[in-house]
Write a structure and sequence with these properties.
The protein is mainly α. Helix content is about 65%, strand content about 0%. It folds into 2 domains: about 45 residues, no CATH class; about 30 residues.
Length: about 110
């Protein structure tokens, strides 16, 4: 005697019940596939965004290696160069504007 042979399923035989349990509606399979792709997309997106976020936080070029240790001295020197270049350019423009000949009123 098989285990569960005394179990009676209302309205269906054991074979019919097992066939119904084995068949999964297409809508359920479609939803499962969509959820799998959604989770995969989130994981891949996070893996791609993490190094970009680290580079943004370190003020480094986006596609540079985010795992390279940069010395504080190098960072300070780089920022001083950028700030000095910007300040010199602004001063040059201001001096150029100040030395323009005045337009004569007609």
């Amino acid at each position: 005697m098989q285990p569960g042979a005394n179990l009676k399923l209302p309205g269906a035989s054991v074979e019919e019940f097992s066939q119904q349990a084995d068949t999964i509606p297409a809508e359920v399979v479609d939803v499962k596939t969509r959820v799998k792709f959604l989770v995969l997309g989130i994981v891949l997106g996070a893996l791609a965004a993490l190094p970009l976020g680290v580079n943004i936080g370190r003020d480094a070029p986006l596609l540079s290696n985010p795992f390279v240790e940069r010395d504080l001295k190098d960072q300070v020197v780089e920022r001083v160069k950028e700030t000095t270049a910007t300040a010199l350019e602004d001063a040059r423009e201001t001096l150029h504007d100040a030395t323009k000949p005045l337009a004569r009123a007609k």
